[in-house]
Amino acid sequence: MLKVIIVDDEMLVRIGIKSTICWEDYGFTVIAEASSGEEALQKIRELRPDVLLTDIRMPKMDGIELLKQIEAEQIPIESIIMSCYNEFELVRSAMKYGASDYLLKLSFKEEDLLAVLERVRKKILARRGQTALSPQTDSHALREQLARLLLEGGASSEQLDRLAAGLNFCVHFSNMAVLILSADPAFSASGLQYEPLDTQTQQLILNMVHDQLSGHLCGNILPLQEPRDHFLVLLNPGLDLLQMANNITGRLRKYLNLPFSVGILDYSCCEADGLRQLPQQLTAFASLRYIKGPGGIHSLGGPPSQYPPRQQRLKASRWLSDIHGIADFPKIPEIIRAVSAQMRSQHLSRDACQQIFTEMFYHLSAFFQTYGGNINGLNEMCGFPLANRLSSLQFLSDAEEWFRVYAVLAERYWQECSSQWKRSDILSAVHYIQNNYQKPISANTAAKEVGISSAYFSTLFKQETGLSFTEYLTEFRMEKARQLLEDKSIYIYEIGDRVGYPDPNYFCKVFKRCTGMSPAAYRKKSKP
Questions:
Q1: How many CA atoms lie within 13 A of 330 on its CB side?
Q2: Nearest CA to 421 among 450, 460, 391, 394?
Q3: Of 8, 118, 170, 315, which has the fewest Cβ atoms less than 10 A away?
Q4: Residue 232 forms beta bridges with which residues?
Q5: Phi, psi of 183 (to 5 degrees)
Q6: For residue 78, what is the enclosing H or E element?
């Protein structure tokens, strides 16, 4: 791994260069930065980097003077000059004092930087009499390994310190503080989804925070693969953590125009074996962030309850009892806001909130189906499965918005479906099924109910619904059975009777044919 120092008097330029490529992927690692030639010379003497990437015009000591001093001290380093369009005379002077190559500062692209680095690599290898670099530990891989060990919680502080030694970390894992930093992505209501951060923005976050910390030798930052867009900021003790959190998020908001959430871990959680609590603290942070919304700074204590008591779960579903027809769907946002207020007051965990919302969604979907809708058709109209998007929401406020959009889409889709029904008598027959599915009804009784001959009714029903009378009735009963199986207090034989199958053996046989598993197996796989 070839070591690089970047020198420029503008902090944003240094960060931009560091974020242009993933250096470790190409055999380079940025070990230092400097804002002047004078500062750079001191670090070059101490750290002995292999590659210097420097601006020409800087205060105190400019790039040309820096190169002169490097040549005078016979320091073995390959230098790359960054210049503007009108500085070609200065570039020629830099080449005279040993610069290997140059880049146009305001316009170079990733491929330009890579091409220059490859030429520099060949010069270094030629000088050393090598054809390839000797194997060295990849710092990018080290960072990933270090983050993984922290989250798994199995490594001692001594093991972590040894691993971090290869990354020039300035913190010790036996005595440190931790900030959990999360980029809060924007929620797109039109697509009911988040826009994830791109790789370059993630790299910018890493570089900007690292630049801020390394300037004061007070900490380091590690990216997390899971959860995505989360980072661990490791800090030396004795710092004002709230002030540090505000400084970091303030800088990121200023330059990236993004909100960030921060979880501040107590010192007791970060001493010796306290590191093993980090995974639980991440869960606690996710819940606080979910409940309180983006852009907050949270002090982390113990994790909240993972699931509310049964009475509270059932109460949440009862909120929907006020909906008496498809025309009542506009009531949904108001109901969800009331449920959200209850969740906030009870400090429920993110998992608990999401499970309640998922239960409410399926309750609404079943209700929607009783009025002639079909959740699969609604998914097709949206272009994505609604349930998947609901489970991925990161904030309670976004769940409220999700249900508002769902109510609009569901009502619009139902209106489109009902307008396609050419015959009101078949729609009446569907309502008859949905209101009497618990009874031993048949196509003959439904036909008699709507005043159509049995033979003609069967043909019309298939034309209008796409299913035979028996298929529709069975599908509807099975959906009701799946809902009832979620309630562990109801015996399976009772459920069969409630959905029109008084013979429990026959009910189990039909259920397995339709779902691929027995009622008992379905209940076992469902969440508690």
A1: 1
A2: 460
A3: 118
A4: 180, 222
A5: -80, 125
A6: strand 78-83
> Which amino acid is present at 419?
S
Confidence of residue 321 (pLDDT cuts 50, 70, 90): low
Per residue in 362-404, pLDDT (tens digit) is: 777 776 665 556 677 777 777 777 777 787 888 999 888 888 8
Rounded Cα gap, residues 474 and 318, in angstroms: 26
d(CA 159, CA 71): 41
**DSSP, res 196:** P
The pair phi, psi for residue 489, each rounded to 5°, is -80, -10
Q: Token pair 């852009």 is at which residue?
A: 295
The mean pLDDT of the chain is: 80
Identify the CA nearest to 296 among candidates 330, 256, 253, 335. 253
If 0-12 CB within 10 Å is exposed, 13-18 middle and 19+ buried, where does residue 20 land? middle
Q: Give the global pTM.
A: 0.60
Which of 58, 49, 75 has the alpha carbon at shortest distance from 8? 58
The answer for residues whose C-beta is within 8 angstroms of residue 178's C-beta and 6 or more apart is: 232, 233, 234, 235, 265, 269, 270, 278, 281
What are the C-alpha distances in Å from 87 to residues 61, 229, 403?
17, 40, 59
Please give the C-alpha separations between residue 131 and each of 48, 101, 134, 505, in angstroms, as whole numbers. 21, 21, 9, 75
Task: For residue range 177-187, list pLDDT tens digits in order.
Answer: 889 999 987 77
Which of the pair, 265 or 372, is modelled with greater confidence? Answer: 265
Residue 137: per-residue pLDDT? 47
pLDDT digits (tens, 9 = 90+) for 31-79: 888 889 999 999 999 888 999 999 888 888 888 889 899 988 888 899 8
**H-helix or E-strand containing 235?**
strand 230-235
Distance of alpha carbon 449 from alpha carbon 458, whole angstroms? 13
Look at residue 437 and give its three-state secondary structure.
coil
Q: Give the pair of three-digit tokens for residue 204.
A: 């910018």
